[in-house]
Amino acid sequence: MGTKGIRDPFLYRLRDGSWVALATDIPVGGDFAKANANIHVWTSPDLVNWSADRLLKVNATNPNFYSWAPAVHWDPVRAAYGITFTTVPQGKSYSVIDVAYTTDFVTATNPAVFYDAGTGVIDSHVVTDVSGQNYLYYKDNATGRLAGARSTSVEPGSFTKYATGVAENRCTEAPTLVKSLTSSSWSLWGDTYCPNAKFDLWQGDLTAGTWTKAGRQSYTAPLNAKHNTVHPITAADRDRLLAKYGGTSWNLLKSYNFPGHYVRHSGFTGRISELPFDPFQDAQWRLRPGLSDASDASGVSFESVNFPGYYLRQENFEIKVVKNDGTAGFATDATFTRVAGLADATWSSFRSARFPTRYLRHSSFVLRLDEISTATGRADATFNVVH
After folding, report:
1. C-alpha span between 2 and 214 (Å, rounded)
2. Across the beta sheet with 68-75, what order do the strands follow?
3. Distant-in-sequence, close-in-space partners of 233: CB < 8 Å, separation ≥ 6
4. CB of 334 within 8 A of CB of 303?
5. 107 neighbors 178 (Cβ within 8 angstroms)
6. Per-residue pLDDT tens over the stretch 119-151
7. Which of 162, 215, 306, 360 has its CA 20 to 30 A from that of 134?
8. Is 242 helix (H, G, I), strand (E, B) or coil?
9. Is 322 left (phi over 0), alpha (psi -120 to 50) or beta?
10. Distance CA 39, CA 36 (A)
11. Residue-wise DSSP of 101-116
12. Helix or strand run (H / E) with residue 310
C-alpha cells in the first residue's frame, strides 16, 4: 500500500490478546521527509495469520508533513489506543510527538500534540501504569540522547522531562523500554542509523531514569532489524511461530573481546567483522558433527550457509573456507573440539583436531590457529555460539 515502502516497525499485543503491527509509510530510496498522513497497519489474532496491509490516516489535519515511527499505548480514560508518532504540526518549525486515538485501527481521530520539548524530537515509546506513573522515552535532537518524560496521566501535554537519558553516538534513536520478567529492572534499547541494524542496550531503573550501558557480550541484537520492539509471548505463541516459520538452522559465532564482531568469510578467508555487513550470510554457519569423527560429541565442523559444502579449515595455521573434497586430510583440518571458553567458561573455544595444542583465534581480525599462552590470546580464542 501507499508508497510501497515501510520503516520503523512497531509490534503490540492488544488487550484482547490479538496483535497489531504498525510502520512508517516511506518510499524506498525516496524522500523520507515527504508529506504523508498515513501509516501502515496489519492485525493478527495469533502472530501467524495476518490481515492485508492497510493505511491508517493518523495525521489528517496536518497534510504538509510526514508521520514517522508510530507506537501504541492504552489510554484507560478514553478506552482507546493512542498512536504516538513524529511530525511537525502546522505552526511549528520543529518536530514533536503527536498522538491519534483509535479503537479498531481502521479509523483514527485527528492528531493532538502529545509532547513538545521546545526543540525537535523524534521516535517515541510510552509505557503505562508503572507505580502510578506513565513514561515516555524519545530521541532529543538537541542533545542526541534518548531522553525520558513522565506523567501521572497519559493526557497529551502532561508529560514533563525527568531524565536526560543516554546515547551511544549522534545516530542513536528509537528508544524501546522493556521490563524484566524476573526482577524490577528495566532495559532501554537504542537503534542507530549509522550504520543501520546496530543496537545498543542500557539497563537500569526506569523510575530514577538511571541507566548503565550493557556490554555486547551480554546480548545479541536481531540480525538486519530496525526499530525493535520486545514483547513476552506464550508457549502457544512460540509453538505456532515455529510450526509456521521453522527454527533457525544456522548460528553466528560472536567474538569475546570484540563482541560486535562475528566470524565470517571474506574472499574465502576466515576473519571477524562487525555487523552489519553484506552479504550478511557470510557470518552464518551450520555446526556439523566433526568431519573427522562424527561420533565424538565434542567435535564440530563449520559449514558455510551461503557456500554449502564449504567449511572452515586450517591451511598452514591460517583459516580458509574451502570446499570439502571428501579426503581424510580435509576432514581433520576442518574439525575442532569444542571446549569451555579460555577467557570465559560460559563461552566456547575450539581446539584444532590436526594440531591439538592450537586453537581457533583471531589476530588483527583474521582467523588462524595458534598456541595460546597470554590473556589476549585467550580472549581472541573465545567465542559465543549464537542461535
Report:
1. 38
2. 68-75, 80-87, 96-102, 112-115
3. 47, 241
4. no
5. no
6. 999 999 999 999 999 999 999 999 999 999 999
7. 215
8. helix
9. beta
10. 8
11. EESSSS--PPPEEEE-
12. strand 310-315
> H or E stretch including 348?
strand 348-352
Measured CA to CA, the distance from residue 371 to residue 348 in angstroms comes to 16
The pLDDT confidence band at residue 43, using thresholds 50, 70 and 90, is very high
pTM of the model as a whole: 0.92
| Per-residue pLDDT, 280 | 92
CA 165, CA 56: separation in Å to the nearest integer?
A: 32
pLDDT digit string (tens) for 275-289? 888 999 999 999 999
Strands 172-179 and 186-192: antiparallel
Between CA 224 and CA 166 the distance in angstroms is 23
Strand 210-213 relative to strand 160-166: parallel, antiparallel, unpaired?
unpaired
| Residue closest to 304 by CA, chosen among 344, 340, 268 | 268
- Which helix (H) or strand (E) segment is 82 a member of? strand 80-87
d(CA 56, CA 171): 28
Q: Output the DSSP codes for 260-289.
A: TEEEEEETTEEEEEESS-SSGGGG-EEEEE
The string of pLDDT tens digits covering residues 212-237 is 999 999 998 888 888 889 999 999 99
User: Length of the chain in residues, anyone?
Assistant: 387
Residues 6+ apart with CB under 8 A from 329: none
Q: Is 252 left (phi over 0), alpha (psi -120 to 50) or beta?
A: beta
Closest CA to 105 of 16, 11, 40: 40
As a whole number, mean pLDDT of residues 304-328 equals: 98
Give the E-state strand segments of 141-220 in sequence order.
145-151, 160-166, 172-179, 186-192, 200-205, 210-213
Residue type at position 256: Y
Place of cell 564449504: 310
